Amino acid sequence: MKPNTNYNQLKESYLFSEIAHRVAEYSAARQKMRDGFGQPKEGSEAALPEIIRMGIGDVTRPLCPAVVAAMKQAAEDMGRAETFHGYGPEQGYDFLREKIKAYYEEQQVFLDMDEIFVSDGAKSDLGNILDLFGQDNRVLIPDPVYPVYVDTNRMDGRNIRFADANEENGFLPLPDYEVQADLIYLCSPNNPTGAAYNREQLKQWVDYARACQAVILFDAAYEAFIADDTLPRSIFEIEGAESCAIEFCSLSKTAGFTGTRCGYTVVPKSLEAAGMNLNKMWLRRQTTKFNGVSYLVQKGAEAVFTPEGRRQTAENIGYYRKNAAVITQALDELGIWYTGGKNSPYIWLRCPDGMDSWTFFDQLLTEAGVVGTPGAGFGENGVNFFRLTAFSTYENTVEAMRRLRRLCAPKPHTV
Ligand code: PLP
């Protein structure tokens, strides 16, 4: 047996375990203080009962009633011989793909049904799509980034170049024609930075991809958070993208499906390279290695796109938007530079006083009892940045920002 030695190239994924470790250590120390050992640091929030987690990328709002009702009905269907469903179509039931097609049409994107593939979420498809591409493709990935793009390519031994996302370009890097790429990852609105490309910027990427004969793997998992109507929700709103892009979507954050699992991927039929058609290849790949998403989940997903489901999911997104506004207001008041929060549930801020992200993590935890995510975990360009998310409860978000204000407010000058 010869294992895939590319796995040796993977960096230890220690970000969330290290966060958990530091939080556990701090909680234990605090408990000791409460039990009468040691003294809380002056001005610290050690006496507060609750650590507030603003680092999680998971949602907190439950599935909306329209989805729950549809899934209950689907369970009933499965319990009766006349309405029972066995293996479904690998690319998804028509009832769901028709709804997705109509959803795209609202943005003037006209897809064929067989360009839409229902999946158990964007993460699987982002990894699985690499089955279609040879190992010698040159991969371009922004830094900082959702780590899945990097790790899935390292597993296959592909060469990765990073496109610098930084404060100067608003964490929205644009193409550099000096750099040749075959596969390009873009995520907009972005995790972790919350930054979102406008049409002109995306057009530059489409033009570049076409010039390089590259394919853009466009992650639109957060499209539902776009509030500014001038921003594109889909790369297929950009002319020419149908000949150079694949788009990954997810109901995880749109409709609270993180635990229910459903997404969809659009592979245009006009995507071709070396005489091979990527849509046909993806269909072949899926029918070979995937047996589809459960009827129950697809029924729930269908309900997301009904008028009632749209209204109810919009309410939940509105809830997170309100949280994001609480965070950005606090940062504005404190004069802290950030991206995101307007069209995204993520807020990416520069650590105060030039601190590195782990130092700020420790300070925020031990002096304010608030947990965020150090930017260093998303790439080298994140070392002085920090991610907060709007997925907490409103009450916790307000309280966390109260504590942040106290921690970061300019201290009165004493002579
Ligand atoms: N893409 C990005 C940018 C994400 O942040 C996430 C989840 O956090 C995913 C994809 C995964 O989505 P899913 O839950 O549909 O697998």
Keywords:
415 residues; alpha/beta; seven-stranded mixed sheet; four-stranded antiparallel sheet; 15 strands; binds pyridoxal-5'-phosphate
Briefly say what this structure is.
The protein is α/β, with parallel strands linked by helices and 415 residues long. The protein is 38% helix and 14% strand. It has a seven-stranded mixed beta sheet with strand order 2-8-7-6-5-3-4, with helices on both faces. It has a four-stranded antiparallel beta sheet with strand order 11-12-15-14.
What is the chain-wise order of helices and strands?
A: HEHHEHEHEEHEEHEEEHHHEEHEEEH
The fraction of residues in strands falls at: 5-15%
Number of beta-strand segments: 15
Report low-confidence residues grouped into runs of 5 or more. none
Distance between the termini: 72 Å
Structural class based on helices, strands and sheet pairing = alpha/beta
Walk me through the topology:
Layout: H1 15-34, E1 52-53, H2 65-78, H3 94-105, E2 116-119, H4 122-128, E3 138-143, H5 148-155, E4 159-164, E5 183-187, H6 199-212, E6 215-219, E7 245-250, H7 252-255, E8 263-266, E9 272-273, E10 276-277, H8 278-289, H9 295-304, H10 307-334, E11 338-340, E12 346-350, H11 357-368, E13 370-371, E14 373-374, E15 385-389, H12 394-408
Parallel strand pairs: 1-13, 3-4, 3-5, 5-6, 6-7
Antiparallel strand pairs: 2-8, 7-8, 9-10, 11-12, 12-15, 14-15
The chain binds pyridoxal-5'-phosphate.
